[in-house]
UniProtKB/TrEMBL annotation, chains A, B:
Highest taxon of source: Bacteria
Sorted UniProt keywords: Transferase
Keyword Cytoplasm on entry: no
UniProt-listed InterPro entries: CoA-transferase_III_domain, CoA-Trfase_fam_III, CoA-Trfase_III_dom3_sf, CoA-Trfase_III_dom_1_sf
This protein's record includes keyword Transferase: yes
GO function term, MF aspect, one: CoA-transferase activity
Signal peptide: none
Pfam assignment, any one: CoA_transf_3
Listed name of the protein: CoA transferase
């Protein structure tokens, strides 16, 4: 079969992580994604001198077009592109597109089939809608910090930008749902995803513990089970790092005892069931720690793979960046970038057996395809392009030859 | 318009969080989702005495059917259902469906249009594919723990089950993409999402810092910016909790200084630009802390909303569970459950302007709709159902009347 989204054209106004990840997933499934940036580049491009690695990670397989949407001629170019597009993605702050005169109500008049996808911090309405939102603030407001960290330390953010990415991938799901429906109705619509909404269901364990305890607010439990109801369940020290180990079935505990050489505890009443072990968590953790702490983490892992005990070494970022499994899965891809040279960018976590993924191509330089896209899609002449360049309404950055 | 997935039938073999969240999103968009569980119930149902709140959160709007898929007659019932279905969702451990004789190759012979969605820990192939995987172990292996926590404490897991949910929502996106493509080709396919793959792109900041520093592995930075390149950017103590504050533009820093009554620092050379402030982060944090620490967190928040400084109070789980914005957005829904009474379950983070969401209805009891579904979809007679019940191949739990 062809690529799943082969004939879909996406105008991508995304910036930073949320919108760009959504449109990256569209691009990997074969959509033609046109990344439209201001003349100076999107926020992530100007954050560091030169294109940041984050920008390169999230903008593979996109055409780069730079247009000043604040100018009247720029707006008209955008509206002309909307006529030929299927999807618009944006994650500006609330109201920004309306202030540009390019909100959904305007775009749908130009193209009633357009699917307009809006990624927001707190959504399009409600008491917090107008507040500034970033991954950090949504983590604070949304319960991520409250549930992360050790009881004797302040609440702490999760390392990954999970609100941005959860929001972005929900937005992707909304777009593909609307594309499916458009096949039946011919009509487009507005898709809206709030990061704050998207993070809420992920608190299932904490909310479950909260409701089932009659509204008792639990302390953060570090790496232990959030309800303190499974044991062993922790991160244990080794000579060269840490390893997460948990037993969700008694047979796994028995396997663990055997590989630890602690058959003497097999019949011990304190550890018979998970309920018993949870009541003696401190002791369980001491027993496991005394076994792990004088070994290497991968050595412990090898033994536990053999014993079929759920576990994983805590990998550091350099280990993740070189992970053989992620390489095998083509999640880590090494590609060539015209200015930066060899770079590593992610592949697609979404795999369809009959629809090939796009080969991964480096993110565009700022405006790399401005002329090409405006010629192809709008039929602009060389003279028209030249004039637009002179007025600084569009921009094209030339590739640097190596 | 009608609901987006109005005519789609989903057979949901999902358990715990990953698969069930995926099919919950399908149900909210109007798909008929049939949750098929073993005779004793899925893992999340047996975890606690009575249906756990987590189960209730993730299985609204599904029909509950209980079939023993290990029996020959149960397998045949499932295959008969597959003939009438559009999508199968499963997140069993690797190979479980094949061992049941119900793998994709078998199902597609019965129904070539079937979309078979497989949520896995490490995916269907690769060196780690056969390892046991849970949210905790993927957090360890995938770099979440490495990037979460304070430098003077061990790595720590993120509170939310982000690997489960990220995996589940990617799977939803894969399914809707395949549904779109099936409209054009008439063909189904296998969708595969690995939680380990799905978490990798969310490390963008950590990987960016790693690559741009030439491979230097950074320490965890607690609540500070992962590259220590933005200041202020932290979680600050107040009288009754904490508040996250960050300034991404100089004008925000100036606003913050004004509301803190520190206009004396407006021209201070140590704090002129973000680069200056980052070099003096410790001092910046002291200045902000001395202002926040003798106030209530919502009092600080009110001032910062007015001053347009990015921030958010760190809400505790009870505050999140009662959040007025999440209620306004209908993400927190209070519904009636026949056994439990009033419960709170999530709504849909994916909103389509023209496609109404399903009204939220409580998760089914184990096998609540077994007879109804098998009668409606397969035309089984009362006698046939009775016989299957007698043989313990299907199960129906009666609603308890209140």
């Amino acid at each position: 079969m062809k690529k799943a989204l082969e004939d879909i054209v996406v105008l991508d106004l995304g910036q930073i992580y949320n919108g760009p990840y959504c449109s990256l997933m569209l691009a990997f499934q074969g959509a033609k994604v046109i990344k439209i940036e201001p003349i100076k580049g999107e926020n992530l491009r100007v954050r560091r001198k030169g294109d940041s690695h984050e920008l390169l990670m999230l903008n593979s397989n996109k055409k780069g077009v730079s247009i000043d949407l604040k100018s009247e001629e720029g707006k008209q170019l955008f509206l002309d592109l909307v006529k030929k597009a299927d999807v618009v993605v944006e994650n500006f702050s609330l109201g920004a597109m309306d202030r540009l005169g390019l909100g959904y109500e305007v775009l749908k008049k130009v193209n009633p089939g357009i699917i307009y996808a809006s990624g927001k911090g707190y959504g399009l309405d409600g008491p917090y809608a107008e507040r500034l939102a970033m991954d950090l603030t949504i983590q604070a407001m949304g319960g991520v910090m409250a549930t992360t960290g050790f009881a004797d330390k302040p609440p702490v953010k999760a390392g990954p930008a999970l609100c941005d990415f959860l929001g972005g991938i929900h937005l992707f799901g909304g777009i593909t749902t609307a594309l499916y429906q458009r096949e039946k109705t011919g009509k487009g619509q507005l898709i809206e995803v709030s990061m704050h909404d998207a993070i809420y269901p992920t608190l299932a364990s904490a909310l479950g513990a909260y409701y089932s305890s009659g509204g008792k607010v639990s302390q953060r439990t570090g790496n232990q089970h959030s309800g303190m109801a499974t044991s062993p369940y922790n991160v244990y020290p080794t000579e060269d790092g840490n390893i997460a180990i948990l037993c969700v079935a008694d047979r796994q505990w028995h396997s663990l005892l055997r590989v630890m050489g602690r058959e003497d505890l097999l019949a011990d009443a304190r550890f018979q069931t998970n309920v018993d072990r949870s009541a003696n968590t401190k002791l369980v953790d001491e027993i496991v720690t005394s076994w792990t702490s004088n070994k290497k983490k991968l050595e412990v892992s090898d033994v536990l793979i053999e014993a079929n005990v759920p576990h994983a070494p805590v990998l550091s970022i350099d280990e993740v960046a070189d992970d053989p499994h992620l390489k095998y899965r083509k999640m880590i891809r090494e590609i060539e970038h015209p200015e930066v040279g060899k770079i590593r960018v992610p592949g697609s976590p979404i795999r369809l057996s009959e629809s090939p993924l796009e080969e991964v191509v480096a993110a565009p330089l700022l405006g790399e395809h401005t002329d090409e896209v405006l010629q192809e899609m709008l039929g602009l002449s060389e003279d028209q392009l030249k004039l637009l360049h002179q007025k600084n309404i569009i921009r094209q950055k030339e590739k640097v030859m190596q």
